[in-house]
C-alpha cells in the first residue's frame, strides 16, 4: 500500500534521481505517497560535459542550467519537495556538517523508505561516497544516543539502492522491481529536461523496457511494460512469503 508512505530520495547529482528512480517517484506520488528529494550537488564538474563544450562557459552558468533542468524534471514527475545543497562534485566531500543536516531531515521527515545510490558504482566515485554517507546517517538516525535537538530517533526504515550505469561491472543485483508502466511517459518527459546528458535518455528508456521484461517474467504479470530495479540493503521480514 503506497498511500501515506513517506519516501526520501538522496541523489548525488542533479539528474541521478530521474534516471534511476524517476518512474518510482512519480508512481509513488500518483498513489498518494509523500516524497522528498535531496540533491547534494548539481554535478557541475562531473556530469555536465556537453555544457562545457560551449565557448565561454562558466561553473556558475553550468550550475544554473543544471539546477533549472532538475527543477523542471522534478515538476514533471510531480515532486513538490526538492532541495539542492549545492555541494562541489568530483570530488564530493561529505563531512560532519552534511551528516548533521541529513540526520535532521531523516528525523523530521521520518521516511518509511530511502532510495539512494547502491554500494558500488565503478564509474562514479561520488555515487559511492553518497551511498556510504546515506547508509551511515540512516543507521545513526535510529540510535537514541545520537542526539539531535528536538528530534527523536527513528526506527529502521527500508533502504534501496539505485541501479548503477554499468550494472554488471558494479556487481549490482536487482532485489526489487517497481512497475512504472502507469507513469512511464512522465519519466521520459522528465529525462528530456537534461540537455547535457542526451545520450542517457535512450539508455534509460531501453533500461526501463529491459527491466519491464524481467519484472513481467518474474511476476507473471503481463501488464508490466516498464520497470526500475533497486538493490535491497536489507532482506524482507514478514510472517509469510509473498
Ligand atoms: Zn551522479
> Could you tell me the strand content as a percent range?
5-15%
Q: What is the CATH class name?
A: Alpha Beta
Helical residues, percent: 40-55%
Q: What is the count of helical runs?
A: 7
What is the correct CATH architecture? 3-Layer(aba) Sandwich
**Low-confidence runs (pLDDT<50, min 5 residues)?**
none
Arrangement of strands in the largest sheet: 3-2-1-4-5-7-6
Sheet with the most strands, sense and barrel status: 7 strands, mixed
What letter string, H or E per element, gives the SSE order? EHEHHEHEHEEHHE
Cofactors and ligands: zinc ion
The CATH superfamily appears as LmbE-like
What is the fold named in CATH at topology level?
A: Rossmann fold
Indicate the radius of gyration in whole angstroms: 17 Å
Written description of the protein model:
It is a single chain. Helices cover 40% and strands 14% of the residues. It has 7 helices and 7 strands; from the N terminus they run βαβααβαβαββααβ. It has one domain (6-232): LmbE-like (Rossmann fold, 3-Layer(aba) Sandwich). With 242 residues, it is an alpha/beta fold. A 7-stranded mixed sheet has the order 3-2-1-4-5-7-6, sandwiched between helices. The mean pLDDT is 95. The chain binds zinc ion. Zinc ion binds next to loops.
Summarize the structure.
The chain is of the alpha/beta class and 242 residues long. 40% of the residues lie in helices and 14% in strands.
Amino acid at each position: 500500500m503506497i498511500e501515506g508512505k513517506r519516501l526520501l530520495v538522496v541523489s548525488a547529482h542533479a539528474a541521478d534521481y530521474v534516471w534511476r528512480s524517476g518512474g518510482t517517484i512519480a508512481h509513488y506520488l500518483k498513489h498518494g505517497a509523500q516524497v522528498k528529494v535531496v540533491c547534494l550537488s548539481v554535478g557541475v564538474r562531473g556530469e555536465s560535459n556537453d555544457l562545457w563544450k560551449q565557448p565561454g562557459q562558466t561553473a556558475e552558468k553550468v550550475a544554473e542550467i543544471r539546477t533549472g533542468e532538475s527543477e523542471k524534471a522534478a515538476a514533471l514527475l510531480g515532486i513538490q519537495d526538492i532541495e539542492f545543497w549545492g555541494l562541489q562534485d568530483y570530488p564530493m566531500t561529505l563531512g560532519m556538517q552534511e551528516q548533521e543536516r541529513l540526520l535532521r531531515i531523516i528525523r523530521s521527515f521520518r521516511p518509511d523508505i530511502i532510495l539512494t545510490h547502491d554500494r558500488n558504482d565503478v564509474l562514479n566515485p561520488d555515487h559511492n561516497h553518497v551511498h556510504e554517507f546515506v547508509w551511515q546517517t540512516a543507521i545513526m538516525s535510529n540510535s537514541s544516543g545520537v542526539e539531535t535537538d528536538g528530534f527523536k530517533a527513528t526506527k529502521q526504515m527500508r533502504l534501496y539502492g539505485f541501479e548503477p550505469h554499468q550494472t554488471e561491472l558494479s556487481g549490482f543485483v536487482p532485489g526489487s522491481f517497481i512497475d512504472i508502466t502507469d507513469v512511464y511517459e512522465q519519466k521520459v518527459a522528465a529525462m528530456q529536461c537534461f540537455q547535457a546528458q542526451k545520450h542517457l535518455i535512450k539508455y534509460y528508456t531501453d533500461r526501463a523496457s529491459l527491466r519491464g521484461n524481467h519484472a513481467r517474467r518474474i511476476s507473471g504479470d503481463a501488464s508490466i511494460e516498464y520497470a526500475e530495479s533497486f538493490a535491497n540493503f536489507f532482506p524482507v521480514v514478514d510472517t509469510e512469503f509473498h
